[in-house]
Design brief:
Largest sheet of chain B: none
Radius of gyration of chain B: 24 Å
Largest interface: A-B, 81 and 74 residues
CATH topology of one domain in chain A: MetI-like fold
Helix content of chain A: 40-55%
CATH architecture of chain B: Orthogonal Bundle
Helix content of chain B: over 70%
Number of helices of chain B: 13
CATH superfamily of one domain in chain A: MetI-like
Shape of chain A: elongated
Distance between the termini of chain A: 57 Å
CATH superfamily of chain B: MetI-like
Strand content of chain A: 5-15%
CATH architecture of one domain in chain A: Orthogonal Bundle
Oligomer: heterodimer
Largest sheet of chain A: 7 strands, mixed
Radius of gyration of chain A: 35 Å
CATH topology of chain B: MetI-like fold
CATH class of chain B: Mainly Alpha
Distance between the termini of chain B: 10 Å
Number of strands of chain A: 11
Number of domains of chain B: 1
Strand content of chain B: under 5%
Number of helices of chain A: 20
CATH class of one domain in chain A: Mainly Alpha
Number of strands of chain B: 0
Bound molecules: iron/sulfur cluster
Chain lengths: ~650, ~325
Amino acid sequence: MTIPASENSRTVLIRLPKPSASGMITAVAVFILLLLGFMAIFADVISPYDPLRQNLINALQGPSAEHWLGTDDLGRDVLSRLIYGCRIAVIASAEATTIAVLLGVPIGLFIGYRGGWWDWVVMRIVEAIVSVPGIMVAIVIIAILGTGLHRAMIALGILFSTSFLRLARGVVLAEREEVYVRSARVIGTSDRRILLRHILPNIAPPLIVQVTLTVGAVLLSEAGLSFIGLGVQPPDASWGTMLNTAAAFMQLAWFLSIPPGVAIILTVLSVNLLGDVLRDSIGRGIAGDAPQPASAVRVNLPAATAAPEPTAVSRPDDVLRIEGLDVALGGDTGVPIITDLSFGIARGETLGLVGESGSGKTMTGLAILGLMGPALRATKGSIVLNGKDLTSMRQNEIEKVRGNAVAMVFQDPTTSLNPAFTVGSQIAELLRTRKGLSSKDAWKRTVELIDRVGIPRAAERAKAYPHELSGGMAQRIAIARALSCNPSLLIADEPTTALDVTVQQEILDLFRDLQEEYGMAILFVTHDLAVAADICDRIAVMYAGEMVEMAEVNALFAKPRHPYTRGLLHAMPHASDREPPLPTIRGSVPRPGNWPQGCRFSNRCDYKTSACETRIPLVGTSRRVRCIRADELNLGRRP
Amino acid sequence: MFRLIFQRLLALVPLLFIVSVLTFSFTSLLPSDPVDLILGDTGTDEQHEMLRERMGLNEPIYLRYLQWLGRAVQGDLGNSFFNSVSVMDAVMQRLPVTLSLTAISALIAIVVGISAGVVAALRPRSWVDRLATLGATFGQAIPNFWFGLILVAIFAVNLRWFPATGFTPITNAPWEWLRSSILPSIALGTASSAAIARQVRSAMVGVLQQDYIRAARAQGLSARRVLFKHALTNAMVPVVAVLSFQITVLLGGALIVEQVFAINGLGTLAIAAVRQQDIPMLQGLVLVMVGLVVIVQLATDIIYGLLNPKARPT
Ligand code: SF4
């Protein structure tokens, strides 16, 4: 046996399963169910008394040394009855669940496979059954079969078989689609075999989950039926019949209701919890928690080497001015997401914020709006909009700024409009709440805006729901909404990425047009340099949370100075190309928390030297670049 | 909107038909002979045969079904075998009782479920969320009738705030009606509020991550407005889709909870009907309950259509 030496620099990280709270709960649930099974099997041995032996002298006593849980109205020992009740609970849930599975699964498989008329009739019958309260269905079946444990369980089995039937049918239908799609030729017998082979592994996980759900429901229903006298019949001890007795003596001996109640709750709770655990571990399509940036590794930024440079020349007509902005996940000591970001945008100017995904460009837009989410915070620097610093504002103050002074257009118009309301009402709502317009004026103005963004028949389209509009049309609406309160800054986050190529150009033209008319500043976030080249006056390139180059658009294209910018330009398809961008930059943007110590681009850079391992400052005034070798390298666009 | 209602109504016709066939044929499977039930051991064979003829029991079953259906459509569900009162009268007399419990418990379940779900969704993993999740988990494991017993022990026997048993019709004394319905309704509604809370939470967490929520905030709408108008409207869509199922469960639960509080509602009627093998009574009860469920379904379908424009017929 070899054990990796601990002093080895490549220490093997062994993740021991942490004794998490949910793990503990699962263990307790399993323990309770095992205990239940044990008591059910060995009831005769464990129980201190015969559960049916009466002793009227000792009736209705509280807990004592002889009778740990007291005695009932006939002097029978409650503990013994509770233990025998375990046996009935196990028998009941096993019986009803087995019947439900044996009845439901084959019928479901059959109708799913046969389809057509059979399927229609059986499904209508199932619909009819589930439209009657379950307990009433059970009552009718019991009326036919008679009362008693086994008969009641047959009734419950029939009742719960409907859910297994639907489950099996659903699996067959889904798999049948799969099989037909994959095998072009469909031949009778082999087709049937293929189907079966596909169904069996696919039905098992949901079946197991459904079984646990059913066991819980059976336990509750059995107790309920026995409680109203239609299930287990006295004098047999089931938890339901015990509660029936207890109900009659609530005034005299309320304690009688506690042991069977607690037994039912603990059992059902354990079964349900186990079902949840099973569903989470084997169920499909579990919505995982949002991935957390790796928080284990913290980048220790070399202090002070990169003090905010005075390079950013403040221009008098700047609408927005960001100065030395730091954004971190989890406060001052957290993982940095954006560092040392400075730029300004003037009235009527369009600044492109360019970079691969993960470079922090979208986060910059959200930071301006103060919408980064609860975990992220601006830890340093300022965001000054129209002379007011947004970073020092309170929530309700910044709410007034949004929409009025700054508005945003998002990437996917079909998801950024609320599906539940008409597009017009979503614009009119802003005009009413933000501008104080009357409903009538707001609607009139809404129609004008929709008309302004180039949508024909605006009055009619205003009453449409988002899903009734094409992507391009919806994006025009989103733009109209953003413009509704005349913002001085418009943030556009990849506004053309989700659209058709032909529509892209129209939307870009619309932006240009609107800027000419309203004169707002635009921060245009995109990963697409071609789009940026089309619409922007200046371009800022971002990489791993910082700006690596900023230049006037023609200068940047003519002579990129940062190796990353050059890589992006190389990856650009030629104007006529329909091919996807060429992947000339190897690797991908490192995630926050995993940035290299010196130049953050160093692990992908072809020009890296030892000098690149220190923090690189952003230098220059009108043209700025963050590369130590910028002056010596000659990075033509296409060497 | 009218088209939606019409479409839904049309879809109900086959459902009601199948329910009526099932109800009729299943209750015909009852082991007992109605003639024996009515006459008991007394009566000669001729008397038995005469009654059999008079009740139409010698006719073929499909004819008996059609006759039964024809009368049922006119609101005549026959007479109880046991005490020959009209089934319709007996059911209608008990209906307000069960309906009160179902309605109040549904109200409790919806209000508590939505508030708990929203609060939990707003602060995922906070103590509020954990508490709500814990409450929801327990709420679904507690038998409603046991919870009723405990409520009686605490609030009726000990504190004497509410009556332990019985039911006062709303027409007699509205205040007493509320007092007598509140404990059973809480007992009944807890499990449903837990189920609704779980659904609201997961729907709300999903909606809050949507672009349109961030977009609405980005346009400067207040957090409260975005939450209660934009997010909740969308989060309610999946919840409303299963609401009629929850109300069906409540209606069934009412049958049992009534027994805890010695309330003379449909549950008592049903249990007696089983014991007495009272076929017309069971048939009538099933039909009336299906009728209620269908009305609830229709209502929730309409609300669903209002909340979710994509569900509307075009
Ligand atoms: S500083 Fe060095 S590693 Fe970074 S981009 Fe320039 S040359 Fe490459």
